Amino acid sequence: MNLRILLVALALGLVQALSVSQPYRVVGLNGTARLRCLFTSSPEPEEMRVSLLKGLHGQEEVCGSYVSAAQAAFQARGTLGCSGELSAGRVDLRVEGLRGDDTELYRCVVEVLYPPPYLRRSGNGTLVYVPGEMSAVWEYLAQKEDQETPGSSSLQVPFPLVAAIALLMVISVRLPLLLHVKKRLYSSRNLVVNSVFSPPDCTDNPAQKRHVDREAEEQRRP
């Protein structure tokens, strides 16, 4: 008789086995993360408790609530603001008030209260990543603004104007140098041309000078 009861209890336990699964990771935006806890149980639980544990081994319960099929939406109490909704085979959790240091592994725990037997399973865990805020940057800018005296003012010059001024300065320095080089090249070229095409100077050669004078005198004779 006792063996039969034990076999029936084991059979009921196998039939009503509970399993819970979660996504690998989610990203919390603006301090809010959405977590979906999937579970399988036969038959469908009518009353259950859902809780969210923080940490690799689930040391801290951040929120938890009793849930019934008659009232799908619920608010969970805890250190963080949690709300959720129960539907067939899943619980959708919304966690609010997260900060950058709340990035951690979160486990969803489902407890079946009715119908019996009592079952409790935890999920494989979801890494909730909460990006750090720019509060440090804004704080630094605010401090810099406070340090400025009311009477002081800083002139902000647009970048295109700065680039134009720099270009004009470069041109003003380079242009005279380029003109000087061009002038020297032009003078050298004229000197070479004149030396090639100008007639030879005969004043330095006496014999050649006499020959030229004699030809000029003969041309003047009638």
UniProtKB/TrEMBL annotation:
Species of origin reads Denticeps clupeoides (denticle herring)
Chain's gene name: CD28
Q: Name one GO biological process term.
A: T cell receptor signaling pathway
- Where does it reside? Membrane
**Pfam families noted in UniProt:** V-set
Lipid bilayer topology: Single-pass type I membrane protein
Keywords, alphabetical: Disulfide bond, Glycoprotein, Immunoglobulin domain, Membrane, Signal, Transmembrane, Transmembrane helix
Query: Region (Disordered): which ranges?
Result: 202-222
What protein am I looking at? Immunoglobulin V-set domain-containing protein
InterPro entries from the UniProt entry: CTLA4/CD28, Ig-like_dom_sf, Ig-like_fold, Ig_V-set
Signal peptide annotation: 1-17
